[in-house]
């Protein structure tokens, strides 16, 4: 292939506006690239119009602030003046923070996988000025490697194809978009049709399929790299709560994975936060970025293991300790403002630490025998090195290895570790620390609200519930724009804004996942506190999601925030039913609809949940590992779910009944409790009126002597009320068992 002559570096500078435009962007990831010589622009109509005016392709680079390989490619290529000059001369470069724009990331990730057979970040995609993808890959090195061309070679080849074979390039791009459209239509969910009946044998079969891919020695599923299978673990724990021939295998699989992760380098042995994934099958070498969405999900899963009273390979006490440390890490490390009453939770901590001006992966977390001895003295230092598998050769770099017991500690070993942990934390705190991405993502905060609310109850830590309420207040105050509030997208449309920075929401409206995760969080918070405002706010989110994401009877993940994204997906609304790092928006929405139907008695919303669950049979029969949350929701649907209404006056007896319900592992159980104190509720912002009682509590009266009692129901049809914790536990167990 002929190599084009290098362009005059001044060519791009002749165009008005040819400069790096990221300096004023609120995204931490975009600002990381503000000093590059590349003339980056943020994603939007202006950038694509600029490409059309110049008649050049768009180079789209997608990543996120905590991404190690994004930093590597930035240093190798985007900070290089010669590479930048060539890129500026022949392309319009656009930077996207995938966490701010998951709609952009999703469709171009699908295109990248279709073109290159691989996916990941940094993602490198070449687009027409209309937004159609025609070439793509992930990380490209500065010099050729076996099987991978250099970034400069890729740029030159794409430029040559654009000049010499433009018709073929555009035809291929249109063909790919048509293929994307076919895929969107194949995954369509129609919410205006009778759903298919759910065969609960599918759930047992999914457990059997998961067992075939389990790593029984290392825990988890498949080989390296290993990611925490949070949604699958939620399904296994729910399945284990319902007696069947696969409930014990489900319990054992969940316990092995939870134990392996807790005792590994994936879980920070000093402060409890979980890293994104492990590059080894035994979880001993993590990729060190720590994400809110991972830790929120894992906190909830460990709490649900405690609630299941799982024991076996992982005791409830050890799981409670892990959960408590994760909750503390979330609030201490990601809380914006006061950790006890945070104004939102930040998105992540970086994989890299900058030491003497250079990026080093995991540098804050790595130890050598010498550094342990410096912090603890020779005796304790040597003992800690043996305990945590710290050897002379670093497993990550010359800076050392992460702390990694890899097994359950004995009593004496635990006492030693608990004694030296504070000194090691102090020593690590004195090191340079990874950067934090302070953007607040609505959906991920919704996940954290649910996890913290339930953790506060199960672990008997009411301060965690208070923190969850502070997060909920922040979302209502900052991210929710009711129709009457200036700045809403339209005069008639209330909207949840996906991202806020420094207490100001800006950017696109939330995606389906944001609405679903936030509604899930508010329903969980209502179940724990009994404060009606959280239930009614969840109802507003569910109503808003139905208006926003259901078009012509079809459910979609987004609402066409970008003409370019719409073009790239063949001008059809898209829906991705597969779980990724977090549950898919569709799966999360199905769970919320099911819970809301149980609270409200809405047959319509129950049918909508059933329609989404119709996605399950073909997915679960082939790949249950990407359908964990759909499986978990299906397990709740098969179980009823059970509806619990606690009536009668507040006091110690009502609290005991309420706590007994919240401690139940019954899949999908919804809990409503009467609250007499109007001051505990109040009107939602913008409503101006006191919210009415939750439908599940209507006509649920106290006992004849005025004492509290519990109604256990399915489909709003209730058994005789119960008045003791013992009776309640027995009846609930019987209903859960079917």
Task: Write the SSE topology.
Elements: H1 28-32, E1 41-42, H2 45-54, E2 58-63, H3 68-78, H4 81-90, E3 92-97, H5 102-116, E4 123-127, E5 133-137, H6 151-164, H7 166-186, H8 201-213, H9 230-240, H10 247-262, E6 277-278, E7 286-287, E8 290-291, H11 292-308, H12 316-334, E9 348-349, E10 352-355, E11 358-361, H13 369-376, H14 378-387, H15 411-429, E12 436-437, E13 440-441, H16 442-458, H17 462-479, E14 480-481, E15 495-501, E16 504-509, H18 512-529, H19 532-549, E17 550-551, E18 554-555, H20 563-568, H21 585-600, H22 603-613, H23 616-620, H24 628-639, E19 643-647, H25 652-662, E20 670-673, E21 709-714, E22 717-718, H26 725-737
Parallel strand pairs: 1-3, 2-3, 19-20
Antiparallel strand pairs: 2-4, 4-5, 6-7, 8-9, 9-12, 10-11, 13-15, 14-15, 15-16, 17-18, 19-21, 21-22
Structure characterization notes:
- The chain has about 750 residues and is an alpha+beta fold.
- It is about 45% helix and about 10% strand.
- It has 26 helices and 22 strands.
- The strands form 7 sheets. A 5-stranded mixed beta sheet has the order 1-3-2-4-5, with helices on both faces. Strands 13, 14, 15 and 16 form a 4-stranded antiparallel beta sheet that branches.
- Helix 18 (about 510-530) runs antiparallel to helix 19 (about 530-550).
- The longest helix is centred in the N-terminal third of the chain and has 21 residues, at about 165-185.
- It is globular, with a radius of gyration of 26 Å.
- It starts with about 25 loop residues before the first helix and ends with a helix.
- The model is unreliable at about 1-15 (pLDDT under 50).
């Amino acid at each position: 292939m002929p190599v084009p002559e290098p362009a005059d570096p001044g060519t791009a500078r002749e165009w008005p506006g040819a400069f790096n435009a990221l300096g004023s962007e609120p995204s931490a990831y975009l600002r990381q690239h503000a000093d590059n010589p590349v003339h980056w622009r943020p994603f939007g109509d202006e950038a694509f119009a600029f490409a059309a005016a110049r008649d050049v392709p768009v180079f789209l680079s997608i990543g996120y602030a905590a991404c190690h390989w994004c930093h590597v490619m930035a240093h190798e290529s985007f900070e290089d003046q010669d590479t930048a000059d060539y890129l500026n001369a022949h392309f319009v470069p656009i930077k996207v923070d995938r966490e701010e724009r998951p709609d952009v990331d999703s469709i171009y990730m699908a295109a990248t996988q279709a073109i290159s057979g691989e996916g990941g970040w940094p993602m490198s995609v070449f687009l027409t000025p209309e937004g159609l993808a025609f070439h793509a890959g992930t990380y490209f090195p500065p010099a050729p490697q076996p099987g991978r061309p250099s970034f400069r070679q890729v740029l030159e080849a794409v430029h040559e194809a654009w000049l010499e074979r433009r018709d073929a390039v555009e035809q291929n791009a249109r063909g790919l978009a048509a293929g994307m459209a076919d895929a969107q239509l194949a995954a369509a969910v129609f919410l205006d049709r009778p759903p298919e009946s759910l065969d609960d044998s599918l759930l047992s079969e999914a457990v059997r399929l998961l067992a075939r891919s389990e790593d029984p020695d290392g825990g988890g599923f498949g080989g390296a790299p290993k990611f925490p299978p949070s949604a699958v673990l939620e399904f296994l724990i729910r399945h284990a709560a319902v007696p069947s021939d696969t409930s014990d295998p489900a319990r054992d699989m969940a316990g092995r994975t939870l134990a392996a992760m807790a005792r590994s380098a994936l879980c920070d042995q000093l402060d409890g936060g979980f890293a994104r994934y492990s590059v080894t099958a035994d979880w001993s070498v993590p990729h060190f970025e720590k994400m809110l969405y991972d830790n929120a999900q894992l906190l909830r899963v460990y709490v649900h293991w405690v609630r299941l009273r799982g024991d076996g390979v992982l005791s409830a006490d050890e799981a409670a300790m892990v959960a408590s440390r994760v909750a503390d890490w979330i609030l201490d490390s990601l809380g914006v403002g006061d950790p006890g009453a945070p104004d939102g939770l930040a998105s992540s901590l970086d994989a890299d630490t900058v030491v003497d001006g250079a990026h080093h992966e995991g540098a804050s977390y790595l130890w050598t025998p010498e550094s342990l001895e410096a912090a603890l003295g020779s005796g304790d230092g040597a003992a800690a090195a043996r305990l945590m598998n710290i050897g002379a050769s670093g497993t990550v770099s010359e800076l050392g290895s992460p702390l990694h017991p890899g097994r359950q500690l004995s009593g004496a070993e635990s006492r030693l570790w608990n004694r030296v942990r504070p000194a090691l934390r102090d020593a690590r705190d004195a090191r340079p620390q990874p950067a934090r991405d302070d953007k607040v993502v609505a959906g991920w905060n919704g996940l954290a609200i649910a996890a913290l609310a339930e953790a506060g109850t199960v672990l008997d830590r009411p301060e965690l519930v208070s923190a969850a309420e502070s997060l909920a207040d922040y979302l209502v105050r900052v991210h929710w724009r009711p129709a009457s509030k200036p700045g809403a997208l339209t005069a008639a449309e209330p909207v949840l804004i996906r991202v806020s920075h420094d207490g100001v929401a800006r950017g696109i409206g939330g995606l389906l996942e944001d609405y679903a995760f936030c509604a899930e969080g508010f329903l969980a918070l209502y179940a724990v506190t009994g404060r009606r405002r959280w239930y009614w706010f969840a109802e507003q989110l569910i109503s808003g999601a139905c208006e926003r994401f259901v078009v012509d009877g079809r459910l979609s993940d987004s609402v066409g925030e970008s003409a370019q994204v719409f073009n790239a997906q063949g001008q059809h609304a898209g829906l991705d039913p597969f779980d990724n790092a977090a549950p898919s928006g569709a799966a999360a929405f199905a769970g919320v609809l099911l819970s809301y139907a149980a609270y409200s008695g809405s047959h319509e919303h129950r049918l909508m949940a059933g329609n989404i669950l119709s996605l399950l049979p073909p997915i679960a029969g082939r790949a249950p590992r990407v359908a964990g949350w759909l499986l978990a929701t299906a397990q709740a649907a098969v179980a009823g779910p059970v509806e619990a209404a606690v009536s009668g006056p507040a006091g110690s007896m009502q609290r005991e009944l309420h706590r007994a319900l919240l401690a139940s592992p019954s899949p999908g159980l919804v809990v409503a409790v009467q609250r007499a104190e109007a001051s505990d509720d109040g009107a939602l912002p913008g409503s101006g009126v006191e919210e009415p009682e939750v439908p599940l509590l209507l006509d649920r009266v106290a006992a004849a002597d005025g004492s509290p009692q519990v109604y256990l129901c399915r489909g709003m049809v209730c058994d005789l009320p119960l008045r003791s914790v013992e009776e309640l536990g027995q009846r609930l167990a019987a209903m859960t068992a079917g």
